[in-house]
User: What shape does this take?
Amino acid sequence: MRKEAFAAPVADEAATRTGRVSSRLTIARGGLLVVVGAFALLTPGFLSVPSLTTLLTTASFVGCLAMAMTFITISGNIMSFALGGTAAVAAVVFVHVLNAFGYAPAVIAALVAGALVTAAQGALVGALRANPIIVSIAANVLIYGVAEWLTNNETAHISEEALGLLIKGKLFGLPVEFCAFVLVTIIGQLVLTFTVFGRNLFYIGSGFRAAEAVGLPTVRTTIGAYCWAGLFSAVAGILLASRFNQANMEFALRYDYDAIAAVLVGGTAIQGGSGSMMRTFVGVAAISIIQVVLLLHGLREEWRLLIMGLVVLAVVILYSSRQRG
Amino acid sequence: MARHLIDPAYRPFVFFVAVILGLVLVDIGEGNILTSATAFSSLQYFSTFGLVALGLGLTMLIGEFDLSVGGLFGLGGCVAVLTGNENAWVGIACALATGLGFGLIQGLIITGFRLGSVAVTLGGLLTANGLAYVLTLNKTITFDDIDLALALNEPIATVFSIRSIVALAFFAIAIVIFSTMRVGRDLIATGSDRRAAMVSGVGVDKILIASFALSASISALGGALLSYGLASASPAGLADVLVPAIAAAILGGVSLAGGVGTPFGLAVGVLTLSVLRSGLNALGVPPFVNSIASGTILFAVAIIDAPYLARQLRSLGSRLRGA
Assistant: This one.
């Protein structure tokens, strides 16, 4: 795909780097949260503990995938269609290893499985410059094909004795899934802000050839971005398996679209080179709050999907005209 | 040979021959592959995702990417079944109008705001999908005209059906227009170098808007025809045509960079995937073999197309020689 398929013309990109415009962007994002938040607070029942707990828990699954997606988007590789599949693989691996060997080996095995699945794609994308969208679609088709071959699409259940090993319930009054999500966000942001890898990732995302010309480790960095994406997807898989005491390949089926929607709503540019975990966190928060508010207003699940689509369209248009302003 | 495999102009035929040879070799002595039944079911698959692939391929040709085709395929089917129970033509017209409206709006947003098509059509995909859920209230809706459903899939001349004839006709029209009229060259020019195309007087914005309108319309039409043929539609059941459509387009030699590809190559790409799928069915292998085969072929094309492949092979070769 040509660069124009994703990006506004170069001049606009330069404009976003000036402080004036970026502070306006921050105001736009802040405004989004305030509006959504106010709408939420005016909804009766929103502040009740059960509804908040549900909100935080469900947001965490997609949230971890959105953090994973953010690495790929910043690296200039748009999005992956295989992160939901990766999460499902990690969930199935987690359940099987948990039943056989216990909790810590299960977590490690799931994380390794997730990272391996995506690192292989990262190698193709980084070393050969293969098209990331095609690679992720091919990977997703292969993941589901191989999984069906190996598991017959059966659901893996966590055995009775292993159930006691799971970490469930609340930590500091918050659902444990949400704590994991916050931890993932913080780790992701620290990696982006304070490591050489994180800095290189932004350079590669804003201009691969330039990054290559100055001798940055483009291959290693791209594989790294995909590895982190795999690790965070695996966290989503572990959370899902722990929540439902089972795992199957259907688990995260449509999560890829929700995740990229959260990344875009948060304001990370789809052409790469800019963005942050905090932005994606805002995106996840905004989307989840909208979902819960719609449900509380008695709108059915179907309307949620439609309004999500319109929100993504609106945000894509809104941010672009802000950037040029 | 190797260079022809890499050259996108030859690729559709290389893969087509390879797939048929592979299937026939596996099938030697069984006689499952080279039958009219396999040909008929190949063409049925062709009609299922051929129109979507044609629309998507058209937007890829001009260097853009229409992610929304899968959503419009599902929405088109739901709209057609909801409005077409009295008169099937009304349903088809409504599905086409829905697609046309969606495509025009997406094209106008992309050209008006100078936005990337991936981001915009991602929003379009989610919106179309959501609209399908809202219209059907998340239920499977049925089409009452069973006679029409049967007639659409009735074999004609052993291997064709009305559905596959419609899909083939669209490809035939596209091939003729593309090779004889100016718009074919304008599409290629828009896809290869947009600035140069604009300077030489190509109405780039018009081409863009028309491509997205056409892509969305024929995707919706494809969904409508499939839903009529199945005598039912559901918002979830029709969503998974994007993957075979992309696979068919890149197998058909349409480059993701834009500017390379023809409707004829695209047709051969769709046919290759259709033959692979119906051939594997005829061999009686479990469904996952089809996924693994499709995934492997997609990986192969992604690697063959990768711009740094030659460089990496060279450096690998010199490293091996040095060692």
Notes: Residues 11-20+36-299 of chain B form a domain with the ABC transporter involved in vitamin B12 uptake, BtuC fold (CATH 1.10.3470). Chain B touches chain A through 59 residues (CB under 8 Å). The CA atoms of residues 53 and 246 of chain B lie 7 Å apart.
